[in-house]
Amino acid sequence: TTYNKVSDETNFFGNTTPVELIKEYGSPLYVYNENVMRERCRELKNLITYPNFSVNYSVKANGNLTLLQIAREEGLNADAMSPGEIFVELKAGFKPEQILYISNNVSKEEMQFAIDRDILVSVDSVSQLESYGQINEGGRVCIRFNSGVGAGHHEKVITGGKKTKFGVDPNFIPEVKEIISKYKLNLVGINQHIGSLFMEGDKYVEGVKSVLDIAEKFDNLEFVDLGGGFGIPYQKLAGQKRLDLQDLGKKLDKVFFDFADKYGKQITFKVEPGRYIAAECGNLLGTVYSIKNNYGMKYVGTDLGFNVLKRPVMYDSHHDIEIFRESNVPSTKSETVNIVGNICESGDIIAKQRELPEIFEGDIINVLDAGAYGYCMASNYNNRLRPAEVLITSEGNAKLIRRRDTFEDLVRNFE
Ligand code: LLP
């Protein structure tokens, strides 16, 4: 190979290398590994032994059509957050009955979009249930509850609990029942999502138990959807451990079997992970164009602005970083640097005060675990072009799965 892998990596890049990928497809570049994604899907499908179980890929984490097709091939279903997500999921071949539209503060037209396609809608408030009843009397419906339990890596992504906008407060169950009978609705499921990224399964189990207390108050449910939030270790280079899925699976199994006994029927349980499926199968590559010292701090200037990966700026998120180099000259020392992007804001920092092997102009930066909430949160800020996406197939070959934006894309919608 013509590059120098400064730190350890798996054969994530298959038959190619970061340097070759950038030469072929340009920089910056999102790269996904098909095998890693399939492996994550399989782990989740085998989480429990309880028979009526479904894994819904939360496609908001990464809505690339090819990745959706992979998830579908692996036997996953999908959730949707918007008509746009429904549109792409149908394009990826998901059947309407495989999709749950988890709406949040939407117009009747948006609900109708799902109803017209035979897609089940989850409503997020008593008033939205009323709106739904008005347009789909006698129809099937799902309700999102907020059982009071929340968890997450940052307060912006804790969606359950007593201080968030999501779900129906269970104190309003009498009002819910009234509207259900007024419009002869068939409440087939309830769902919740406590938040994004837990590393201890017990918090999830606590959330599951509390939403099942709510489920008990309704007869004839077909399913309970327990939400996502399954965490991945973003600090692998520092030895961070993985979420213990086996242990979580065992605990869930017990809760599910017990509940089915009590409820008197084999209700279906769904989980709804996004990050766990997409994060680790994606890396983000960028290029170092400038190195400078400003008042004692070394800045490594790259094309990895927050228009490309927003997580570090939005949530102070940590992503591990590796350095690749075309020459075979290894770095001889390490140093503490700020890795920054090319956006005109001083907050445009992808890695703060990070200790790394010495970095030079022309080096390739590999940002790990960037597959979830990476491309989908990218923007055209500063009229920058969103990057291309490439898949490393199971055979190890690179395949373009989304082209880079063009300048024409920037002016397409102007009248
Ligand atoms: N279900 C619902 C209703 C959700 O709102 C979410 C995520 C998920 C499932 C999937 O959660 P996951 O398994 O991916 O944790 N942009 C943030 C994460 C936002 C998550 C929003 N909701 C980030 O980059 O960390």
UniProtKB/TrEMBL annotation:
Active site: C344 (proton donor)
GO BP terms, alphabetized: lysine biosynthetic process via diaminopimelate
GO terms of molecular function: diaminopimelate decarboxylase activity; pyridoxal phosphate binding
Top-rank EC class of the record's enzyme: lyase
Biochemical pathway: Amino-acid biosynthesis; L-lysine biosynthesis via DAP pathway; L-lysine from DL-2,6-diaminopimelate: step 1/1
SUPFAM superfamilies reported in the protein's UniProt record: Alanine racemase C-terminal domain-like, PLP-binding barrel
PROSITE patterns from the UniProt entry: ODR_DC_2_2 (PS00879)
Chain sites annotated for binding substrate: R275, R311, Y315, E345, Y373
Keywords: Amino-acid biosynthesis, Decarboxylase, Lyase, Lysine biosynthesis, Pyridoxal phosphate
Cofactor(s) the protein requires to work: pyridoxal 5'-phosphate
Modified residues annotated as N6-(pyridoxal phosphate)lysine in this record: K60
Binding locations of pyridoxal 5'-phosphate: G229, E272, P273, G274, R275, Y373
Domain of life: Bacteria
E.C. number: 4.1.1.20
Signal peptide: none
Catalyses which reaction(s): meso-2,6-diaminopimelate + H(+) = L-lysine + CO2
Orn/DAP/Arg decarboxylase 2 N-terminal domain: residues covered: 38-279
Similarity comment text for this entry: Belongs to the Orn/Lys/Arg decarboxylase class-II family. LysA subfamily.
NCBIfam families, A to Z: lysA
The protein's role, per its UniProt record: Specifically catalyzes the decarboxylation of meso-diaminopimelate (meso-DAP) to L-lysine.
Self-association and partners: Homodimer.
Name used for this protein in its record: Diaminopimelate decarboxylase
